[in-house]
Amino acid sequence: MSPHLEPNQQVKLGTIPTLIFASRWLQLPLYLGLILAQIVYVFHFWVELVHLVEAAFGSEVALQKLVDSIGYRTDVAVTALNETVIMLVVLALIDVVMISNLLIMVIVGGYETFVSRMNLQTHPDQPEWLNHVNASVLKVKLATAIIGISSIHLLKTFINADNYTDKVLMWQTLIHVTFLLSALAIAATDKLMINSSAKH
Asked: Which of 20, 26, 36, 127 counts the highest number of beta carbons within 10 A?
């Protein structure tokens, strides 16, 4: 029978449990690596944005870089920005932002859930979702973010559909639907688990 403990009293762990519990800090380099990946995405975003602005002012070199980066192909040579190129570039920028948001959720939520508390309760910029974050909530939010990213990719593909085969279009659509069904299944499973816990 375990002794009665005060709310703030800490249990002294043995050597092996202490070592095992301390192993969570091995994840820290992973989260630091994701921060570096975030920096790369920020750099890529600004490079594309600068090319878009330069192309808007008539730079053919910047325009060609944009066309190559978005994979836009047409029978007629692209000599100036058109609506399709602008839309594809903007969607690519939005894609970078959404992936960056996904990284933030993984870094902040993952660190808070699996490594150590950040004690952000009194911080004015604390994300609203961090108040009730746990492994289940983080899983659902990540699934939702992946669906958003997949939607952007699918929209980019449909806008530039002439450069893709029917097989590619079909598979991208099926993959997106799979992501959607997976997210619904995760959310439904979490809801069942919450309802089951509430009954007990």
From this structure: 127
